[in-house]
Amino acid sequence: MLCDLCKKNVAKVHLTQMDKGETKKIDLCEECAKVKGIDDPTGFSLADLLLGLGAAQEMEPGAAGTGARCPACGFTQAEFKKTGRLGCAECYRTFAEGLEGLLKSMHKGTRHVGKVPQSQHFSPDLEEQLKGLQRKLEKAVAEEDFEQAAVLRDQIKRLREPPSHPAAL
Amino acid sequence: MKIDEFLPSPAATLKSSGPHDRIVMSSRVRLARNLRGLPFPGWAKKPDRVKALELIRPAVESLPAMAGAFSGNMDDLTSLDRQILVERHLISREHAAKSGGSGLVLNPDLSLCVMINEEDHLRMQALRHGLQLRAAWQAIDQLDSALEGKLDYAFSRELGYLTACPTNVGTGIRVSAMLHLPALVLDEQINQIITAVNKLSLAVRGLYGEGTEALGNVFQVSNQMTLGETETDLLERLHKVLAQLIEHEENARGRLLEKRAKMVFNHVGRAYGILANAHSISSKETMNLLSLLRLGIDLGCFPKVDCTLADELFMITQPAHLQKGFAEKLSADERDLLRADMLRERLLQVGRPVTPPPAPDKPSGN
After folding, report:
1. DSSP string spanning B293-311?
2. For B211, which DSSP code?
3. CA-CA distance, B223 to B203, in Å (whole number)?
4. How many CA atoms lie within 13 Å of A109's alpha carbon, on the beta-carbon side?
5. Among B30, B29, B51, residue whose Cα is nearest residue B39
6. Cα separation, A80 vs B177, whole angstroms
7. B153: nearest CB among A43, A88, A117
8. A-contacting residues of B 116-175, CB under 8 Å?
9. Does A19 contact B191 at a Cβ distance shorter than 8 Å?
10. Which letter, b or e, does each residue of B286-309 get, where b requires 16 or more Cβ atoms within 10 Å of its Cβ?
11. Across the interface, do B165 and A42 touch by the CB < 8 Å criterion?
12. Exposed, middle or buried: residue B80 (CB in 10 Å: 0-12, 13-18, 19+)?
């Protein structure tokens, strides 16, 4: 019998759970059992495991294929399959394509609507601000005021994307 | 300062009461945050973890809310100290197993706790007695807002706070409450309730014990989704569910007293009998009997004490708390003897249960 998770190794850990007369069974190899925390049975629930079964594998290969490596931290999709955790904040961009479906299945929505750090707040509305700058930029280019255009271009860039360099270092 | 000198006694921390604490033992709100530009702790090499720790620890220590806090590296704590922190519900089992580059900052009344380099760079939590989700959220929201001025968080406008596990991305929030639901278990309604709560995409877990078995009838209800809903919407949703769970438990208690009072008093009486007289008792049996003792206290069978006693005994009969004060590692058998000695002594002053209780202290049973 092969492990239900990796489907490679021989299953040695066999779990059975009765839930309202329904029997659920799962067979795992020692390695996957360990990864899933079943060697430490405290707080383990078969339901969690069954619900989450395959979740870690659902990350679809992105355009770059499964071999893609995060340029910031060197993390790969294969690692994610093993642990269900990502390597760094930048991984969300690197594996964005593959993560999309996964996030959709896990969460209520795919867009953050909660708290935003003060430093990321924009007033007035960011979109409005960007549009205004864009108009000014076009005007500057038309008037061949390249100095001004460069300034505006940088402003737009900063607004669109918060600095990704480690400011804390 | 040493952590065991810093930690107030369980009795002292459990003394304060909160709304609905007959049923809701505690409320907790946890936020996950990471620093921009450093790999997440699970993937980071030690130098990067140390770098994160060196940035985060002083920033957390400097907050007014953390005045007088304990602050240390996990390396400096003995394994017994860590185990005690786990039994106190202050750190996760995962964090207790961490070494190089992990840290902990804990305020004096233990209501704010920041784990550094657990699964995420920062896991900060606010803890309150009884049902106080909003107060817990306000406290941790303030702490987080104060910290964001000092640290550069990994945040994306699209996905919110970026976390090591995609299940936490967005708000990075986990709102949870610890509930004591003995009547729903005795009345065999608990499985139905758990299924119903699960359908609302909330998780219900047994807090103690292995697998799905919930020792001591203590359950933890928490959210699972963190993306696509605001913190306050989630909080209010969970609050409503908890209010219903409280009502169900109160109703079940009322119904049991009305229809099957002998069965309830039999359980309470036997629980007291064993706890007050045993000479060897396992942790599992202790939990289950303490739950019944706590129910008896709630129902007025032990007029001299309040549920703080049961909650304290829940904590101090656990392995690491028993081990404290002994240089030699105790075996499970030795702990069972010690546990029984402690329970006999503590229950001496409680006196036998009065059944039926003199007068119900809650109108819901009538």
Report:
1. HHHHHHTTS-TT--HHHHH
2. T
3. 6
4. 14
5. B51
6. 30
7. A117
8. 119, 141, 144-145, 148-149, 151-162, 164-167, 169-171, 173
9. yes
10. bbbbbbbbbbbbbbbbbeebbbbb
11. no
12. middle
Other CB atoms closer than 10 Å to residue B47's CB: what's the count?
10
Instruction: Report ipTM for this prediction.
Output: 0.86
Region B134-153 average pLDDT: 96
Q: Is the dihedral of CA B1, B2, B7, B9 positive or negative?
A: negative
Do the beta carbons of residue B230 and residue B137 sit within 8 Å?
no
Q: Pick B210's closest partner by Cβ from A42, A83, A108.
A: A42
pLDDT at A31: 76
**3-state DSSP call for residue B149?**
coil
Contacts of B226 in chain A (CB under 8 A): 107
Contact across the interface for B166 and A110, Cβ inside 8 Å: no
Q: Which residue of A has its CA nearest to B59?
A: A168
Q: What is the pLDDT confidence band of residue B139, given thresholds at 50, 70 and 90?
A: very high
Amino acid at B173: I
B103 neighbors B71 (Cβ within 8 angstroms): yes
Q: Three-state SS for A15? A: strand
pLDDT for residue B121 is more than 50 = yes
> Can you tell me the mean pLDDT for B177-188?
95
Q: In terms of Cα–Cα distance, which of A26, A95, A147 is closest to B211?
A: A26
Residue B71: strand pairing partners: B105
Residue contacts between A and B (CB atoms, under 8 Å): 153
Which pLDDT value is given to residue A40? 45
Query: How far apart are the C-alpha atoms of B154 and B131, rounded to whole Å?
Result: 31
Q: Do A115 and B43 count as a contact with CB atoms less than 8 A apart? A: no
Residues B203-224 pLDDT 10s: 998 877 555 567 899 999 999 9
Question: In angstroms, how far is CA A64 from the centroid of its own chain?
Answer: 16
Do residues A63 and A95 make contact, with C-beta atoms less than 8 angstroms apart? no
The token duo for B235 is 């909080």
For residue B68, how many C-alpha atoms fall within 13 Å in the half-sphere facing its CB? 6
Q: Nearest residue of A to residue B173 by CA position? A: A114
- The tokens 């985060």 sit on which residue? B56
Q: Among partner residues A41, A168, A169, which is closest to B210 by beta-carbon distance?
A: A41
